[in-house]
Amino acid sequence: xxxxxxxxxxxxxxxxxxxxxxxxxxxxxxxxxxxxxxxxxxxxxxxxxxxxxxxxxxxxxxxxxxxxxxxxxxxxxxxxxxxxxxxxxxxxxxxxxxxxxxxxxxxxxxxxxxxxxxxxxxxxxxxxxxxxxxxxxxxxxxxxxxxxxxxxxxxxxxxxxxxxxxxxxxxxxxxxxxxxxxxxxxxxxxxxxxxxxxxxxxxxxxxxxxxxxxxxxxxxxxxxxxxxxxxxxxxxxxxxxxxxxxxxxxxxxxxxxxxxxxxxxxxxxxxxxxxxxxxxxxxxxxxxxxxx
Amino acid sequence: xxxxxxxxxxxxxxxxxxxxxxxxxxxxxxxxxxxxxxxxxxxxxxxxxxxxxxxxxxxxxxxxxxxxxxxxxxxxxxxxxxxxxxxxxxxxxxxxxxxxxxxxxxxxxxxxxxxxxxxxxxxxxxxxxxxxxxxxxxxxxxxxxxxxxxxxxxxxxxxxxxxxxxxxxxxxxxxxxxxxxxxxxxxxxxxxxxxxxxxxxxxxxxxxxxxxxxxxxxxxxxxxxxxxxxxxxxxxxxxxxxxxxxxxxxxxxxxxxxxxxxxxxxxxxxxxxxxxxxxxxxxxxxxxxxxxxxxxxxxxxxxxxxxxxxxxxxxxxxxxxxxxxxxxxxxxxxxxxxxxxxxxxxxxxxxxxxxxxxxxxxxxxxxxxxxxxxxxxxxxxxxxxxxxxxxxxxxxxxxxxxxxxxxxxxxxxxxxxxxxxxxxxxxxxxxxxxx
Amino acid sequence: xxxxxxxxxxxxxxxxxxxxxxxxxxxxxxxxxxxxxxxxxxxxxxxxxxxxxxxxxxxxxxxxxxxxxxxxxxxxxxxxxxxxxxxxxxxxxxxxxxxxxxxxxxxxxxxxxxxxxxxxxxxxxxxxxxxxxxxxxxxxxxxxxxxxxxxxxxxxxxxxxxxxxxxxxxxxxxxxxxxxxxxxxxxxxxxxxxxxxxxxxxxxxxxxxxxxxxxxxxxxxxxxxxxxxxxxxxxxxxxxxxxxxxxxxxxxxxxxxxxxxxxxxxxxxxxxxxxxxxxxxxxxxxxxxxxxxxxxxxxxxxxxxxxxxxxxxxxxxx
Lengths: 292, 435, 318
Prior knowledge:
The structure holds three protein chains of three kinds. Chain A is an all-alpha fold. Chain A contains eleven helices and two strands.
């Protein structure tokens, strides 16, 4: 395929993955920013969303109904799990950063293995609710992928509105800037933390539901998105939503383009080293506040 | 295009949960003893075979079917009197498809469970990591892997692969057919690790030999989930697209292949490894209709199989579509699991021929020499995949390969290779190594 | 007994016990013990950075892998002898640690964590990308290329159990000595100061950057020594050991045993090894129990085993 169409394909691929990446990374960024903790199990929430989507589709039968139910049910279920994890584990260790890492690694194993035991080791497909091929002159492209980009965009906008326009969003931003001060002003820190953690998990699960008709649901699918989200959140700046979005697009598009033209492994190596470079020059990330 | 309700056979909700719960409980039951009762053998001491199985990790789908086939083989052998009057007892340990854990499992089986032999590993990187330890512990290690490692001469004299043909022979055998029948300009898509490199290297050799040319070699990282970008790199003058994809991304791979090429597609030849455990009738695989696949053992009954094949299928519990009799949605890894069945039968033959009694150096020597003297395994219930030739110097068996065409969501065999088609010059000789 | 005498007695006692253990252990556990000691050296290296300097890294597999490939590749391609290969392995790990440190020590906390993880991932991907040389995740074996160690007149083959065990013990003893010496030295005290409050330590006039870099170099060297030891003793070198899971392991082992304690890594590694081994003899989903155990530990024993012991009963434990 000649260069022009090739580049166009790369841009399409990059855009779709950028949107999905933004959705996953956003959840991580909110948790990072407000609670200052690293949730290593974040990828597993995404995986659970995909697996639960399969369960819904399998139970209901019709693709459209099954998928729509999954889009609502899966994030709710995963959110409930996250809430439980926050209440019974994270709160008990007082959100201590090192302990949280260990605890979430433990959660990662527990979730992954539970899914392995109950769902099995196979990768299972889910029929997309809408399926059509957009025929360009040089190649065909999945219409559903474009739908995914659109829905992700909507969810991103919704989250943006939540953070900037609602009281919860206000509490979140206050807690992020200065927790003690926020508490002095009456922000219910504990409850905000619980809600933020839940929200982060729900966003990841939603991304999982959207993705599963493109890829399949597999119990090990959470690791790669986790690593990519880390890249995005760091480049964008810990705790900066705008930064996360910009970085998701930068990473998604560049990864899409580079890996279309070069080896994807090489693209990943370059991406990870670039992250390190960014951080070394600006330890707070591109948009984040300089924090020691 | 909306799928009909009938394309989603509703698993009775309860059935799903019950089966899954039973399986989970089964998983919890753990390092199990497979193979049914060993009573009825009087005082005969069992032959204990350590089974290094991929119960978890990326090989879990294969591991599950390997366990079932092993259990069925053991049941069948024990029902006919065991090995020289001694029942087989399987001791299974999960290696997590992890090359770090592999040698630890070999150690555990050999030194804690004190088994006679170790058997059953599939994934190449685990085999390569584990084999040295088996060699150091001086315990026979029967690999069921189809990798080229044993036959390459780079393992040790305790390693054998007598139940399944290696990938180099597979590729060499089908290579001449592809280049003769489908086209001379080939683009290859393969996983970016050992198994994939074997395909890349040996098919390239075959192409040179038969006047073909490999236009492009696209190596895909194992964890890749989206493949559109690779299809973009397939040259426009490709006549044959050769693909062997492993891992959970396969359905996506086919779907994106269809989206990308549409009606203007080259001939497509794949290896059933991509679709082991996956139903050919899955939504998204329609695009494969009219494409070709290598199969070691045809998944679908062709209507002309010998009685022993029908018997084998019944005993391992698969239906005419190669899926579990108990659950038609559970598709087997039919082109690989027979390796377990046949290997166990080879072990039986070797023990009986050599007079092996106990896990002691003298007995092992007799056993290994007996194995190395073997030349042929005739087709039959012990070797239902077909007749095999065995090369004692390379510790590797060679069998027929099948080429099938996807027609109406099933696979129909169009060609069966001769054993000679797959042979290659030997690169090693284990018989020269001391024990 | 004075504190320093108690400390010395305890650690020498542990080493003596480990030495005597090889004569009583049944065959299976014999090799396990050798593996545990090498991996404990890795955890000890990790602990220098986390437990004593307060920097948590999720990329230490890169140092372990540097040692492993640094020792394994020369043996595989050039037939180099074990001592030289071991030296190259350690040198590779130390060099990597210094390069990494010069770039990454500008960050701290979660940023440092992520940068370390990124570097670790990059190295892992590099072992896959350059698989012409490294043989990627299929890996390669060195045992058939490794000449036996010449000790006086004797030739010590690496496959012999006694050789494996005692070389592993030697490695662990060296790492124990190094970490203990560091801990008790003036440098060690500065590191603990940095862990407690870096600002204050800097105000006291210490160049915290240099100390952190030194600590990272030691940590990298010890981890690489473990990696080199693992390659030479257990023969297999592959990408799996550079993966992120192998960066999580030493964190787990150190935390379980007690970060900031010298013997913690040994306790944690041994316990985790046998936890996995025992549980996987009962169920194939042993990682589930491992995960649950981790959560339980962090909820109720956040100091790890020896850390809790130290808090409650043995305040002199380093």
